[in-house]
Fold this protein.
Amino acid sequence: MSLVQRGRWVTLVGLALLAGVYVRALVFTPVELHQGPAQKIFYVHVPAAWSAMLAMGLVGVASILYLLVKDARYDRFAAASAEVGTAFSLVMLTTGPIWAKPIWGTWWTWDARLTLTLFLFFLFLGYLLLRGAVTDVGLRARYSAVLGICGLVLLPFIHLSVYLFRTLHPMPIVLKPSAPSLPGVMLATLLFSVGVFTLLYVGFVMQRYGIGDRGEGGGTHA
Amino acid sequence: MPETVPPNGAYMVAAYTIAAVILLFYTITLWRRGRTPRS
């Protein structure tokens, strides 16, 4: 069985479990009294943000490894992870404003966290556009590795932006120095969803890695 | 504690629907690209 086929199976299992996340979140997880049902958007928004940041983190790590050892497999993995990260960041950037409208009264505000996550999305897009535009395989790998490392550097700023700047975005409630501040049933739903989104990331990347550089800017070696 | 829960379920439904559509669309895209023979 090829990597693409194995990736498809992982993705199918992930999608089945995603249906389980939906049922658990919508039916079996209590409604938060102050925010109402819109609070449940949290169970897809946060895992999507986690997967997008995981994707960019691994793009950055693979980019560093590529520049160190010049193994094309790292470049190929980074390309796969960037494309998958774009999909997850799109989920993050659409579900976030849908939550913000009823809770904040506005779809969007240019505060630090939101602006930096939008910048992350543009970095993903820029990374993919760069790969599509450069036909020389070696140059493409080097240029995109530099951009991938920029994305890795951005991640701590995104996570810490709620501490560093005055922002409307809620503080971290799980990844913080003290214990998670969520009731157990809500935390279990969130962690289940994070696990499923991570599995989907793995399945997508396996497929995308197996597909290889089809759809990119061709390939000629310098 | 508020007396009534805010009636904003439509936003929740919209967010869950859009998330599912994006993930399913990307799944189908990858599946189709995986079937295309290498040129």
Remarks:
- Chain B touches chain A through 27 residues (CB under 8 Å).
